[in-house]
C-alpha cells in the first residue's frame, strides 16, 4: 500500500517533534517519568514500530563514541541518558529546551519517502541561549499511514579551521 507524503505533513511533524522534545524536558523538570515521555516521543515519530525493532538510521548531534544509533535503546539513551551501553549520553532532551524552531532548506518527496534538510534551533531553558544544529531527516509512511522518521542526521555546524 502506497501513502503519498505531503510537504505540509513534514512541516507539521517537525513542529510536533520539537514540541515533544520540549515536553520531555518539562517532564524532567517536574520530576515526572521523563523516560516514559521519551519512549512515547520515539514511538510517535520514529519507525521502530510496535515491537521497537524497526529500522531507523539515527545519527544524533552530540555522539562521538557511538555516533550511529540503529536501535530504539540507542535512541532512547541519547534523549534521556542513563544507559551504561552509551556512557557518553547525558540526555539531549532533558537539557532542557524551551523551544525548537525549524528552518527548512528544502524537501524532496518521492512517493512514500521524503527527505528534508535545514537547520533547527534549540533554546536553552533559563538562559535563552540558542543552539543551531543542522538536520537531514528522511520520512516514510507506515502501513497505518503514519509519517515516521527513517533517517535522523543532525550535526553541529562546521566551525572552520
Largest sheet: 5 strands, mixed
How would you spell out the order of helices and strands?
HHEHEEEE
Count of alpha and pi helical runs:
3
Approximate shape: globular
Strand arrangement, largest sheet?
Answer: 1-5-4-3-2
Averaged pLDDT: 95
Structural class: alpha+beta
Query: What radius of gyration results from the CA coordinates?
Result: 15 Å
Helical content band: 25-40%
- Distance between the first and last residues' Cα: 49 Å
In total, the number of domains comes to 1
- Architecture in CATH? Roll
Total DSSP E strands: 5
Uncertain residue segments: none
Strand content: 25-35%
Query: The CATH topology is what?
Result: Nuclear Transport Factor 2, Chain: A
- What is the level 1 CATH name? Alpha Beta
Keywords, separated by commas or semicolons:
161 residues; alpha+beta; Nuclear Transport Factor 2, Chain: A; five-stranded mixed β-sheet; 3 helices; 5 strands; 27% helix
Amino acid at each position: 500500500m502506497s501513502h503519498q507524503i505531503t510537504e505540509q505533513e513534514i512541516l507539521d511533524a517537525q513542529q510536533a517533534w520539537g514540541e515533544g522534545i520540549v515536553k520531555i524536558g518539562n517532564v524532567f523538570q517536574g520530576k515526572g517519568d521523563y523516560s516514559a515521555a521519551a519512549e512515547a516521543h520515539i514511538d510517535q515519530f520514529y519507525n521502530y514500530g510496535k515491537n521497537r525493532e524497526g529500522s531507523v538510521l539515527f545519527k544524533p548531534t552530540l555522539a562521538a563514541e557511538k555516533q550511529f544509533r540503529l536501535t530504539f535503546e540507542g535512541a532512547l539513551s541519547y534523549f534521556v541518558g542513563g544507559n551504561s551501553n552509551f556512557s557518553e549520553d547525558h540526555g539531549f532532551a532533558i537539557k532542557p529546551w524551551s523551544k525548537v524552531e525549524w528552518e527548512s532548506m528544502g524537501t524532496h518527496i518521492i512517493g512514500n519517502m521524503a527527505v528534508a534538510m535545514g537547520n533547527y534551533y534549540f533554546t536553552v531553558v533559563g538562559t535563552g541561549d540558542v543552539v543551531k544544529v543542522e538536520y537531514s531527516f528522511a520520512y516514510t509512511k507506515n502501513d497505518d499511514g503514519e509519517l515516521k522518521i527513517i533517517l535522523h542526521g543532525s550535526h553541529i555546524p562546521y566551525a572552520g579551521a
